[in-house]
Amino acid sequence: MQLSVQKDEQTEVGSYFVANYPPFSAWNAAQIPSYLAAMNAPAPKPTPPLGLYIHIPFCRKRCKFCYFRVYTDKNSSDVDTYLTELAREAELYANRTALAEREFDFVYFGGGTPSFLSAEQLERLIGRISEHWRWEHAREVTFECEPGTLKRSKLETIKSLGTTRLSLGIEHFDDEVLAIGGRAHRSSEVFQAFQWAREVGFPQINIDLIAGMVGDTQDKWKETVDQALALDADSVTIYQMEVPHNTEIARQARTSGESTPVASWSTKRWWVDYAFRIFEKAGYEISSAYTLVKHRPPLPTGEGCDADTRGDAEFVYRDALWHGADLIGTGVASFGHLAGVHYQNVDSWEGYIELLERGELPIGRAMPITDRQRLIREMILQMKLGRLDADYFRRKFGQTITNTFANAFDALQNDGLLALYGDEVLLSRAGLLRVDSLLPRFFEPQFQNVRYT
């Protein structure tokens, strides 16, 4: 299925969420030398912020909607082998010219399930990586967790790594919906894990929800929103369920020849809008098409040391990447970007391990991008914030986006999906709720009707 504007009705098999540009299907192994050359050349000036992504590909179960590279069949020896090679990969980046004297501005532990690892495994991994890279000055360190894998003692270890934002993959509070989707945890584990996380004292706790999971109903979704609101998380991320090609739901649909059992796009948009309105009434502010943040008033003068000292929530990782930061992606199948070149690691366990054992970086494909593609990439990703500042692009790229992409902007304005106020582009709520379906309008012609992944 091609990436295109989704119809209101069925959620069909195919990619909907736009994570990068140009589409991943355009990246190829022939361009790997361009990435290796970028690593061994001085960093461009001005030098962008630098991030580190660490992929932990292990899960207790594979969710039926998961499209990431994860493993549920590895034993402890396999896990230790992977962690050894992951640390070796970090070491191979240590003396690259493009990274000389640069510190990480943000770090992200993703998966899979990073909290699948034991406290001892985490400590060993970070100890090995710290021989070459440290991040004590990073503005944000994010760690993804599955609630059922947590204990208070493990959370204390996770915090000791420098974690500033703990992200709990809750997805839903209805146990039947969780079971149908193949989630390993149940709602009771969410409440316990959240309580421990608060006691341990993470500066920011984010919770993830998914609208439109198989088995969901309007009443179940409203109850999930109420339960999520009661947690008083610092930030909330809400995705609309999609069905990429390599998910179990997609495979079942192809086998049966029937439509996917996922809620329609119009239903999902309504559910997300409902959640946004409920959270807004409770003092949250919409931060992007998927995120809300809780703004907390300043503490009164003289407040005791036991008071809540949490500040306003942020998404440093997101905002840095959407404004052109470099990212070193480590781990099997992980993605990165350095000095104008996209890359992805090989996506097989055997290939990843073999290349690292030979002392080679496990790069699987790459793509150097042009200045125009850099502009489009930042523009479409920042559109997810619900607003664009044309002056930002004029200063950085020498382009007035409202002129360069006038046809697309005018069409969206005529449809009531955005409005133009001089240099400010503002998406309407209707535009924000379907923003990923709008972004291909800004793609270059050669990428308009190709498979995204």
Radius of gyration: 22 Å
Q: How would the global form be characterised? A: globular
**The CATH class of the largest domain:** Alpha Beta
CATH topology group of the largest domain: TIM Barrel
| Total strand segments | 15
What fraction strand? Answer: 15-25%
Quaternary structure annotation: single chain
Strand order of the largest sheet: 7-8-6-5-4-3-2-1-9
Low-confidence stretches: 1-7, 301-307
Percent of residues in helical segments? 25-40%
Number of discrete helical segments = 17
Distance between the termini: 10 Å
Overall average residue pLDDT: 93
Structural class label: alpha/beta
Largest sheet: 9 strands, mixed
In CATH, the homologous superfamily of the largest domain goes by the name Aldolase class I
CATH architecture of the largest domain, by name, is Alpha-Beta Barrel
Overall number of domains: 2
Structure, explained:
The chain has 453 residues and is α/β, with parallel strands linked by helices. The protein has helices spanning 32-39, 76-92, 119-129, 152-160, 175-180, 187-200, 218-231, 248-256, 265-281, 316-321, 349-357, 371-383, 390-397, 401-404, 406-414, 429-433, 435-438; strands at 50-56, 106-111, 140-145, 165-171, 204-211, 235-240, 284-286, 291-294, 326-330, 335-338, 341-345, 363-368, 387-389, 418-421, 424-427. The protein has 2 domains: 26-321, Aldolase class I (TIM Barrel); 371-453, Arc Repressor Mutant, subunit A, CATH 1.10.10. The chain contains 17 helices and 15 strands. The strands form 3 sheets. A 9-stranded mixed β-sheet has the order 7-8-6-5-4-3-2-1-9. Strand 14 (418-421) and strand 15 form a beta hairpin. Helix 2 packs parallel to helix 3 (119-129), helix 2 (76-92) crosses helix 11 and helix 4 (152-160) crosses helix 6. The longest helix has 17 residues, at 76-92. The radius of gyration is 22 Å and the shape is globular.
